[in-house]
Write a structure and sequence with these properties.
The complex is a heterodimer.
Chain A: E1 4-13, E2 16-26, E3 31-35, H1 42-50, E4 57-62, E5 65-66, E6 77-80, H2 92-102, H3 107-121, H4 136-148, E7 154-158, H5 166-183, E8 186-191, H6 194-200, E9 203-208, E10 211-216, H7 218-223, H8 228-233, E11 240-245, E12 254-257, E13 260-263, E14 275-280, E15 285-287, E16 294-302, E17 306-313, E18 316-323, E19 333-338, E20 344-347, H9 358-363
Parallel strand pairs in A: 3-8, 3-9, 6-7, 7-8
Antiparallel strand pairs in A: 1-2, 1-4, 4-5, 9-10, 11-14, 12-13, 14-20, 15-19, 16-17, 16-19, 17-18
Helix pairs in contact in A: 2-3, 2-4, 3-4
Chain B: E1 4-13, E2 16-26, E3 31-35, H1 42-50, E4 57-62, E5 65-66, H2 72-75, E6 77-80, H3 92-97, H4 109-123, H5 138-150, E7 156-160, H6 168-185, E8 189-193, H7 196-202, E9 205-210, E10 213-218, H8 220-225, H9 230-235, E11 242-245, E12 258-261, E13 266-281, E14 286-292, E15 295-301, E16 312-317, E17 321-323
Parallel strand pairs in B: 3-8, 3-9, 6-7, 7-8
Antiparallel strand pairs in B: 1-2, 1-4, 4-5, 9-10, 11-12, 12-17, 13-14, 13-16, 14-15
Classes of the chains: A alpha+beta, B alpha+beta.
Chain lengths: 372, 331
C-alpha cells in the first residue's frame, strides 16, 4: 500500500486552470476525501493521481517516487468510476477475473484470489450469475471486486455512490467504510456530498475553483474552518455569518454586535479591512432571556430530536439548532448566547479565518450539545 | 381551496394492490405529506386524486362532492412533478402564463399579467421573467414549475417529490419557501416524498404508507413521539430508532417483544454495560456505535468524547417504546 504526496500540482486546459498549486499528503492506509462543488477541480485532481491526465506542473509522489508524468498503466492504481462499467457478456466470476487474466496470472491463483475477494464482498453466491440480472448493489460490489482483486497500491473512486438512491447510498457508504477498515488500503474518494465526506473520511481536502481551501480531519474542518467557503460548504444547515464592521485590536476577547458585547476566544491578529464575519454553528446557539444580543423568530422546523429555528438578527439571518422540546414561537424576540470557544471569526473581505487563541478558550470548554 | 376526502379507496395494477382501502381527510388549508419508501403507494394516491388513475373502489370527494367521474381538467387540481418540464422555447413569463391561456379558462390578458406578476413576486423570480426558461439554474427552473401551478387557483396542489432533483442547499431553501408560500396563500397541498426531513419540517399532517395501506396519520410530532408500529417509528429520526429484544434492559411490559429506543432516549453513564464499536463524526452530531448482548445500537455523544472503540460504558433506556411480535406498539 502507499503514501501519496501531492506537491504544487497544477493543471491547465488552454486558458482554463482546473487545479492550481495544490499540495497535500495522503498517508498510507487512509480513506481520503476530495470534496467540493462541481467544477472545483476534485475529479481532475483524482485523474492526475490516476495518470488519466498529466499535470501541467508539480509532483505526485507515490511511495516517494515521482509519477506525475508516468502514464496510468505504470502506476498500479485501481480506479472505480461512478457508473460501474461491467462486461455485460461475462458472468460475475469472469468480470472479476478479467484484470488478472489479462495480466497473465496463473489460473489457480486467479481462482483463489477471486474467491477471497468474493468472500470479503459477500458475493460468493452470485459468482456464476450473469451481470445483467444483478441488483444495483451487487453490480457495485462486482465493480469493487474487479478493483480489489488486482491488489493495487491505492484505490481511486469518483463518486461511486452518486447514482444510488438515498437509503441505499447510506448502506453502501457503511459497507465501503467497513471494507476499507478490513483491507486498510489507501483510498482516494471524490464526492460533492459533505455528509458522505464527513461520514466516511479519515481526512478531507476541501477544494473550490481549483484551489485547496483546507485539509484535515472531518472534525477539524467542521470545528475550525479555514475559510468562509469551507464554513458554508460543510454542515447542514451551514455555519452562520454575522457580519459587522469595527476596528478590533489584537488581544480583543469580545466583538460588538448591535450594541451587545459577544465574547470570543482572544483574537491574535485583526483583519486589515475592518470588516468581519462572526461564524456560529447552528448547534452552538442558545436562547437565553438574559442575553443582550437578540433576534426575532421567523420559522421553526421540527426535526424530531431537534428543531431548526430561523431568526432575524441585526446582522442578518441566523439558523439555530435547539432541542425540539425548547419553546420557539414564531414572531417572538429572544436573547441569543453563543458557545464561546466554538466561535470562528473571518475577515469578511477575503474570507480567511482569523487566528483565535483556542488554547485559552479550551480550558473553559463547556459541554457541547450532543444531540443533533 | 378545498377539503379533499378519500374514503375506502383501492387501486390495483394486475395482481398488485397499489393503494389498499385508504381513507384520509386533507383539511382545507392543510399541508399533508405522504411518506413511505418506493412502492408504498404514495404517487398512485396522488394520481388518483388528480384523476390520472381511476380507483377500483372507494370515493374521492372535493369540498364534499364526489369527483371520481370527472376528468383531471374538471377536477381543477394543479400538479408539480419531480422533473420540471418547462417549455424551453418560452420565457419564464410565458411559461407562467401558459396554464391561464387555456381556452377552457378564457382569462383576460390583464388578469394573466397581474397573476404572473403576483406569483413571480412570491417565488422571488420577478427579475428573471424575461429570461428563457433554459437560461435558469435548477432551483429557479423548479420555482418556475411550482409557479406554473400557483398561477391557477386550483382546489388542491399535488406535488410529487418536487425538490428531490435539487442539491441539498437549494432543497433546504425551497423547503422553507414552499412552506411560506403555502401558509401565506392558505392553500391545500398534498405532497409526496420519501425524504423524512421534508415531511417533518413542512407538514401540518403526515400520512405514513406501507404497501398501499395508510398506517398512521397525524402531526409530525405525533408520528415521531407516538408511532403506532416499528415501521412508522423507523420512518422518522436520524439516526434511526434502535430496536432490540425487549428484555435486554430487564423486564418488559406483557406482550412486548421489542424495545424501541430513539438515540436521545439512551442515557449514558448508568445501567448495563455496552461496548463501543465506532465513533462517527458528522460535524453537527457525533454518533456512538455500541453493542450490547451482541445487538448493535447507535446513540449520540459529545463530539470531543474521550471514548474509543473497545471501551465499555453503561447505558440505560429512558422513555422506551415497546412493540409486539408483529411490530405493533404495545406501550
Amino acid at each position: 500500500m502507499a503514501e501519496i504526496v501531492i506537491k504544487n500540482l497544477r493543471k491547465a486546459f488552454g486558458d482554463f486552470v482546473a487545479v492550481r498549486d495544490s499540495s497535500f499528503t495522503i498517508n498510507d492506509g487512509e480513506f481520503f476525501m476530495l470534496l467540493g462543488p462541481s467544477g472545483c477541480g476534485k475529479t481532475t485532481t483524482l485523474r492526475m493521481i490516476a495518470g488519466l491526465e498529466l499535470p501541467t506542473s508539480g509532483q505526485i509522489l507515490l511511495d516517494g517516487q515521482d509519477v506525475a508524468q508516468v502514464p496510468a498503466s505504470g502506476r498500479d492504481i485501481a480506479f472505480v468510476f461512478q457508473m460501474f462499467a461491467l462486461y455485460p457478456h461475462m458472468n460475475v466470476r469472469r468480470n472479476i477475473s478479467y484484470p488478472l487474466v489479462s495480466q497473465g496470472v496463473p489460473r489457480a491463483e486467479v481462482r483463489q484470489r477471486v474467491h477471497e475477494v468474493a468472500r470479503i464482498l459477500g458475493i460468493e453466491h452470485i459468482l456464476e450469475k450473469s451481470v445483467g440480472g444483478l441488483s444495483s448493489g451487487d453490480r457495485q460490489r462486482v465493480a469493487l471486486g474487479r478493483a480489489i482483486v488486482r491488489r493495487p497500491k491505492a484505490f481511486l473512486m469518483d463518486e461511486p455512490l452518486g447514482a444510488l438512491d438515498a437509503e441505499f447510498r447510506e448502506h453502501m457508504a457503511e459497507e465501503l467504510r467497513a471494507l476499507h477498515d478490513h483491507m486498510n488500503a489507501t483510498t482516494v474518494y471524490v464526492t460533492h456530498d459533505q455528509l458522505e465526506a464527513m461520514q466516511m473520511g479519515d481526512k478531507i481536502v476541501v477544494m473550490n475553483h481549483g484551489v485547496v481551501e483546507q485539509w484535515g480531519t472531518p472534525q477539524e474542518i467542521y470545528d475550525f474552518p479555514a475559510t468562509m467557503f469551507v464554513a458554508d460548504f460543510i454542515g447542514s444547515p451551514p455555519m452562520n455569518f454575522l457580519r459587522f464592521e469595527v476596528a478590533l485590536m489584537a488581544g480583543a476577547d469580545s466583538v460588538p454586535l448591535a450594541g451587545a458585547s459577544v465574547p470570543i476566544p482572544s483574537l491574535r491578529a485583526p483583519a486589515v479591512s475592518g470588516r468581519y464575519a462572526l461564524g456560529v454553528r447552528p448547534e452552538h446557539i442558545r436562547f437565553s432571556d438574559g442575553a443582550a444580543y437578540r433576534g426575532r423568530i421567523i420559522t421553526a422546523e421540527y426535526l424530531g430530536t431537534t428543531q431548526i429555528v430561523t431568526l432575524q438578527t441585526p446582522n442578518g439571518e441566523l439558523k439555530a439548532r435547539i432541542a425540539s422540546s425548547a419553546p420557539a414561537k414564531v414572531g417572538e424576540t429572544v436573547g441569543l448566547s453563543f458557545n464561546t470557544h466554538t466561535l470562528s471569526l473571518f475577515d469578511a473581505e477575503g474570507g480567511a479565518a482569523l487566528p483565535l487563541d483556542r488554547a485559552v478558550a479550551s480550558t473553559m470548554r463547556g459541554k457541547v450539545t450532543a444531540h443533533g | 381551496m378545498a377539503e379533499v376526502r378519500l374514503s375506502g379507496v383501492t387501486k390495483r395494477f394486475g395482481d398488485t394492490t397499489a393503494v389498499d382501502d385508504v381513507s384520509l381527510t386533507i383539511p382545507d388549508g392543510a399541508f399533508v405529506v405522504l411518506l413511505g419508501p418506493t412502492g408504498a403507494g404514495k404517487t398512485t394516491t396522488l394520481r388518483l386524486i388528480a384523476g390520472l388513475e381511476r380507483p377500483e373502489s372507494g370515493d374521492i370527494l372535493m369540498s364534499g362532492k364526489s369527483v371520481v367521474g370527472e376528468t383531471p381538467a374538471q377536477r381543477n387540481v394543479a400538479m408539480v412533478f419531480q422533473q420540471y418540464s418547462l417549455y424551453p422555447h418560452l420565457t419564464v413569463r410565458e411559461n407562467l402564463a401558459f396554464p391561464l391561456k387555456s381556452p377552457m379558462l378564457n382569462t383576460p390578458p390583464q388578469q394573466i399579467a397581474r397573476r404572473v406578476a403576483e406569483v413571480a413576486e412570491v417565488l422571488r423570480i420577478s427579475h428573471k421573467l424575461d429570461n428563457k426558461a433554459t437560461a435558469l439554474s435548477g432551483g429557479e427552473m423548479q420555482r418556475v414549475s411550482i409557479g406554473r401551478a400557483l398561477v391557477r387557483k386550483p382546489q388542491i396542489f399535488l406535488m410529487d417529490e418536487p425538490l428531490s432533483s435539487l442539491d441539498a442547499k437549494l432543497r433546504a431553501d425551497l423547503r422553507i419557501e414552499l412552506k411560506r408560500i403555502q401558509s401565506s396563500l392558505g392553500s391545500t397541498l398534498l405532497y409526496v416524498t420519501h425524504d423524512q426531513t421534508e415531511a417533518m419540517t413542512m407538514a401540518t399532517h403526515v400520512g405514513v404508507l406501507d404497501h398501499g395501506r395508510l398506517v398512521q396519520f397525524g402531526t409530525p410530532r405525533d408520528i415521531y413521539e407516538d408511532p403506532s408500529s416499528i415501521y412508522v417509528a423507523t420512518r422518522l429520526g436520524q439516526p434511526r430508532i434502535n430496536t432490540l429484544p425487549s428484555d435486554v434492559f430487564g423486564p418488559a411490559p406483557q406482550g412486548a417483544s421489542f424495545i424501541g429506543l430513539r438515540p436521545e432516549h439512551i442515557v449514558q453513564g448508568e445501567g448495563k454495560a455496552a461496548s463501543v464499536t465506532r465513533i462517527e463524526h458528522l460535524g453537527d452530531q457525533t454518533r456512538l456505535h455500541l453493542t450490547i448482548d451482541n445487538h448493535s445500537l447507535v446513540t449520540l455523544v459529545d463530539p470531543h468524547t474521550s471514548l474509543r472503540p473497545g471501551d465499555t460504558i453503561p447505558i440505560r433506556p429512558e422513555r422506551p417504546l415497546y412493540f409486539d411480535n408483529n411490530g405493533a406498539r404495545v406501550g
